[in-house]
Amino acid sequence: MGNSYAGQLKTTRFEEVLHNSIEASLRSNNLVPRPIFSQLYLEAEQQLSSLEAGSRVDNEEEEEEEEEEGSESSCPVPYQMKPPPEGCCTTDGFCQSGKDLRLVSISNEHIEVPSGFLLVGAKSPNLPDHLLVCAVDKRFLPDDNGRNALLGFSGNCVGCGKKGFCYFTEFSNHINLKLTTQPKKQKHLKYYLVRNAQGALTKGSVICWKGAELRGRQSSSSTCSGTVCQLTESAGLPGSTVSEPPPNPPSRTLQTATAIDHTLSTAAFCSAAYNGKESPKQQLVKNNLSALSRPLVLGTLTNSGPPKKRHKGWSPESPSSAETLNLPLNPQVSNRIKNDGGSLSSQPHSALVGPASSPMVGSGEPVSVPDNLLKICKAKPVIFKGHGNFPYLCGNINDVIVSPLLYTCYRNSQSLSRAYEQYGAPTIQPISEEMQLLLTVYYLVQLASDQVPLIEDLEQIFMRSWRESHLSEIRQYQQVIPQAFPQVPSHIAPVTSAQLPWLAGLAASSCNDSVHIIECSYSLAEGLSEMFKLLIEGKLIKTNYVVIICAGRNRAIDSCIVITGKYQARVLSEGMLTPSDYQKEVNYQLVTGKVESLGSFFSTLCPEGDIDLLLEKFYQENQGHISSSLPTSANKSTTLNGTGAVACTSYEIERHQIRPFQLAVAQKLLSHICSIADSSTQNLDLGSFEKIDFLICVPPSEVTYQQTLFHLWHSGILLELGLEKQHLTKQRVEQYVMKLDAEAQIKFKVFLQNSMQNPHTLFVLIHDHAHWDLMSAVHSLYPQTELSTGLVDRLLNCREVKEAPNIVTLHVTSFPYALQTQHTHISPYNEIHWPSSYSNGVDLYNENKKYFGLSEFIESTLSGHSIPLLRYDSSFEAMVMALGKRFPRLHSAVIRTFVLIQHYSAAMMAVCGLSQMKNYTSVETLEITQNLINSSRQCPSGHGLMVVLRIPCTPLAAVAYERLYNVRERLALEDNFEIILGNPNSGITIGKHFVEQLKVWQKIEDVDWRPQTYLELEGLPCILIFSGMDPQGESLPRSLRYCDLRLINSSSLVRTTLEQELGLAAYFVSSEIHSEKAVVNDVLESDPEKLSSTDNEDEEIATEGSTSEKRSPMKRERSHSHDSASSSLSSKASTFCSEPSPPLVTAGDRAKSPHQVLSNSTEEATNNHERQKQKVDKGAQTTISKHLPAGNEQLDTKQNIKSAQISITSSSSSPFSSSSSLSAPTPNSFILQTSQCSMTKSSKQPPIVFLPKLVYDIITSTDSSGLPKSSSLLPYHSVMWASSFRPLMSKMMTCTEQSLYYRQWTVPKPIHMDYNNRNEGRMDTFHPRRLLLSGPPQIGKTGAYLQFLSILSRMLIRLTEVDVYDEEEININVKEESDQCYHQPGDTWPDLETFKKIPFDYTIHDPKYEDASLICSKLQTVNSEDRPKSRRQEDMYTHRQTTRMRLSKYAAYNTYHHCEQCHQYMGFNPRYQLYESTLHAFAFSYSMLGEEIQLHFIIPKSKEHHFVFSQPGRQLESMRLPLVTDKSEDFIKSPTFTPTTGRHEHGLFNLYHAMDGASHLHVLVVKEYEMAIYKKYWPNHIMLVLPSIFNSAGVGAAHFLIKELSYHNLELERNRQEELGIKPQDIWPFIVISDDSCVMWNAVEVDCSGDRKSDYTWTERNVSLKHILQRIETTPNVTHYALIGMRKWSSKTNTAEIKEPFSCCHVHDFIMLNVDLTQNVQYNQNRFTCDDVDFNLRVHSAGLLICRFNHFSVMKKQIAVGGQRSFHIKSKVSDIPVSISPAQYICAPDSKHTFLAAPAQLLLEKYLQYHSHRFFPLSLKNYRHPVLSVDCYLNLGPQIAVCYVSSRPHSLNISSSGLTFSGLLLYLCDSFVVASFLKKFQFLKGATLCVICQDRNSLRQTVVRLELEDEWQFRLRDEFQTANAKEDRPLFFLTGRHI
Fold this sequence. Notes:
The chain is of the alpha/beta class and 1939 residues long.
């Protein structure tokens, strides 16, 4: 009751109460209705009689929810909270002023409470486990009788002190309750708060609103006899439970023996329903999460006033309020609620957010539960409430269990059609209640007597029925689900309530009384009474289910279903227990001695009395010596080893090695990391990390912890990552593995501090076994809670981890389902699933081992597989069932454990000679025990088998250990095998004798060594009692032979639980076993990507020979070469323990299936000591190799073995036969006898798994999609289904599709750590740096993630390294050797006058021009051997020599580099938009092109200060240039131009670090069509966009335009600055033209401090580009140099090269160009290659100085994309890529040659490079007679030399006197070339001429103008053109011969 009518009677409220009162009086026959005003003031009626008063538990939260909700058909009106004031705090648990109100936070603070006020605890729906402290005027709170509370509210905020809240709505807004329903004080003010003895504020008694929970004032005697209990469904409580009563209940609690019966106290309160009619937000609030920590209420009940509309039978005396019995609920229990039953009783998915619409409220006459019901029926019936009203139960209510789960399922199914409304489907009627009940009866009828109903089955039946009835409407929206369940006719006419009982009875008539229908006419009460009567009378002995239907004509049906079958009722009731309750219940039964009756019963079974007496007698008889029935002792083998006798060689512990699978997974992980880094979100900056660090989190299992340390140690990863030095200690390794226990927080804090202190280290946080403990930290803040609970959430989800940019979290698990919900933190794109080994029959990974996991185990049970690996023990199950009926009060886990201990004890006794005990064990247990005890005798070293006995309950495991230990001691088997108690919280303890054995086997000399992991128990014969509620990632050794899971909790059915139990048996088998059987092996490899594998009729799986009479599995041969350790026939095979060479079956038999061979070779077991004989088909020729003494002889049989399929080997049926000899074979039969090491055999075959029958049925049965039924179970206990309306999983689903299925259809419960991961209004709740690796258990995930760390580290190092060209200079031998030294080695700058004396070196020395023509400067002698061989075109890039260099801090970077310093420089900042840029046109005229050139600049706002704009129109006028005299340390004067194409990602344009932060002007020169992509990647760079006519041009065009633009700009700047009084010659004339692959720069430092002047030493170091440019810019007289460059770096640089610090030679790649001096020298805009050589020659011939600084060098990075390689020459006609040879680049004019889509100039250059010898045949390798090239340098290939001359007047040319040329090349010659110029040169006779012109006309004009016909002979056929179409303007050339 909120303040909507605070303090006064509002009309609407008055009318409502009046209406209810009148309605009640009309329904009532005997009593006067309550006074209206007393209802309004919440006045309670007097107590009813104790019988009636105790007949229900009030669920006041639920009632209020129903008040809001109204009737079933009406939807609640959403409540809109007033938005909070802007800027105020809105955090849950804090008031709007930001003060903490949570009780846990302020319990010790002093709080001033005004007079008349009380401190009370308020509940917030968003903080279910916290109370918020409020001060409330006590007049507005009820008294102890729940009366006299004033309407309205008055309260104060204890946080900020704000007073005077007069409305609860206002107050709830202030304390941030964030409600979606009308605030009511009754609903949210829950507890009085009191101070305890220490003065701390604690939760007190419940505020008794409406008299609903009266604090008990009655005497216990008045209620003891008649206390009744109705199990409620707590509103919104997902399977809460009543905990044990406190030892000393408070005086106010009602103490009744019946109410706190222990058995009842552990029964689960089942889950609330999913309404389906509310928005998730409403459901969240309605699911009042306070139930999770609220004490549950039992006790006597009283009336509480106005009825709910749906309770039509309400009368004023209807009991509806309770005097409470406050049983404090253990918060740990409520937090770790595990509704894991796959059984109907405990399906957690029904506990979805939202309350049940109909509470477990009784109506009508109470039903008395008979006394002694449990005693008579031997089971507690489980009553599932169905439809309608449910009567009260009174009397002996401890003997029944009531659950609302079926009601929940019905309600959920009513909302099925809503799922289709989002698709626009018309509103369809949901399935009717009558139909639901009828389908339920159909389902129950078809269940077998040993089956338990599953809620998933029922949901799928309802869904399928609904879909079929509305098929036409929904077909277009969703695919029809295949039939899964009992056939239901498709278009059924609606079932009426009158027909229902008859139809139900008809359905049940065929089931032999398994389902009994009771029809009642008035109410369910009479049906329940009749059912109880029939139970007491014993008339329902054969009945498992009683369906009670009350169907009247004019009202809705009432129904319930009672589970009376003893087995079903037991499973369902036990399935309601949470794991902690299950443990508590078992412990209680052990502590209180309830199990003693079971022990005494076992004693009566033995014919000779107590089994202990038998043991004692046996012990006395055999004391002092080992039983004579054991022919050899365990000690014997040890002695043998000690005396040097032959020992077993098969023993080898597997060391760390990476398998192909693991490497593939590691690479997948790496690619995901890279994709995160590559995404535009910039969530991971890999480029900023220098190294890797990591922390592995494991569950608090000591064995798992040590196991991870073991893997880490042997992987060598710590040394590889450089985290540790060579001398590694265990203490250092422990720093990298964290056990999630109480001490974890300390280690984790260190990890976080390291991550903050090392921002350049990438920290990988690996959460192994990640499905363990996903508890929300909010739910584990109670003092009683285990410290480890919720640790994962507290640590891995803390703010520091989420926000740290250098922490990547990797979750690793075999069962990822709980991390794949609607609220998961992990993006589906960040999931990595273990890959499939086979794809379409092709082995993707060359694995030498075969993995056996769940699907392979299931496959072995299919028909055609003679030896199933999964089994159940029918005799054990029968005995358990019988004892369950005899001891109904004992938990089945106790019974099962005691029976199994008895079986193992009897089996041990039977094996030791007490053969009469065989009858008191099962065949399966006897087989296990025989093979265990016998195993160590089959090997001379004493190697044996491991048997895992899984006992989840720790107290029971301790009992089992103690009992089996005692039996073993009495039987004198203590040296035969060990019994180990495996407790997750402690290490491994084994006897000294066995430790010594292990040390001998493993060659360990450490005196103090003890095994710390189960893997180190390899070969130890032992029973490992594996305890703990869940396995925590422990791996088992290869000697594991049997995995006994008969004691796992079969009533707790969730997918993760089942699969992780079966995961213990997951195993690797050597795949060589199947090597000859490729076809069979092919199918054996099931696809882990699929949920289940295909049938394989021919699969063979071998197992131990068994002596059991029943179900003795046939031993079958597995085709392998019988080396005990591997498949290779090594010399080891001849040792004593090896298996002998097997019999071989000839090719004739190979055609048969393995089963034909099997059937032909039957095993004849005569008695236990006779050997099994094996026969082979008469027709089969058999070959058998004799026992070979040496390995070399075995090689002869290798081919035979390979070429034949091997048949069956023999194994002795006797458990004691220890050795035998190999006899010669008879023609048709043979006997194989050998001593075989059991461990060797077991390591070559998967273990055998024993399961409970219930689990076996679920695992091996399939649903309609072909999947195991286990896969449709709820995936995890802390998640629930989002809807009952969900499709079935498909058999063909990959792991990725499974993940998406769970992400859509599961939601976390409030106890799950992902529950609050919801961002309102934003879909993306994924954490960007969180990944999930999932793979089958025991498959090698640890090795995979350790390998991932290794390759990630290598990649980070690789990211900081680049491949740079590392080549020696070429043509060194051609260089003129001169003794003259022009400069001293230590000179910083060249002296201008001295430099002018240095002759120009024409020879090209740059190694990239190794394929270029040599340039002759004078008469030179060049041997042909000195010239390199011509390389193929592609070799030019791929075969150049490179070396890997670590990037220095002065490197240039591509777009993948991100760091804090250069973010702004790059223009990438996630917080801001990309930098704005403006486009500016810039035009100038150039006479050579004959037109005006228009260029475009893209100038970012941040770079506009480099330019001058006109004031009115902001037109670009010029680029600012500095003065020659300017000097500044932080300023580079020369603008840098970088022409680039095809390298928007890979070009090295980030010069921020190279320039060392100095201010500089950098312009990218790009083609027009690439402008957009370059702008996207480099938004803060200035772009110069070339005109579109240059889109297909080469680098020459870019260089040409850069130079012409720069000169034009120089003129503009001179004019502009001249007006400012600056001389033109003072404007800085240099620009830098840099390649886009220049990565680093180096400087040589020369030390001339030697004695002699000529002595010096030098070192080379990496320097910044700023350092180099500033050094060059400060060169004296720098403006007198036309070109300045530097060496290309090489590691092979020798002293001679840098002896002369300055050279006058060619410069490349990175040049400073003086645009003023070179005004009249142009780049050739047509050129694609060698344009820099051509330009250098022009500059030199113009008399200008070219200077190379030899002390500076540039490193060029190898970039595989873009640049010259972006030009692809292809045919113009066809789009099909055809390789075209350079010979086809030219053709005869007017021919029908295929035209090519490439520039004519490129075709010309490429043709001349590869085929110039066709034009200049005399020049080939004729270096004394070069080709004369006029005004240009064209590459004619390495085997032809050229001589460059310039036709310009006054140009510098070489002296041609004495030179005779072998050819003449005239390329586009201009008017400077005249006939007289050419006549100066001498040519050989027969020398050739090539004239190249733009068209045929100019070709003829040139011939005439130059008078060429005087000396040259031309023929018509000597005219050619480039292979271009006419519109592409081909080049034409004419060749001729010298006369």
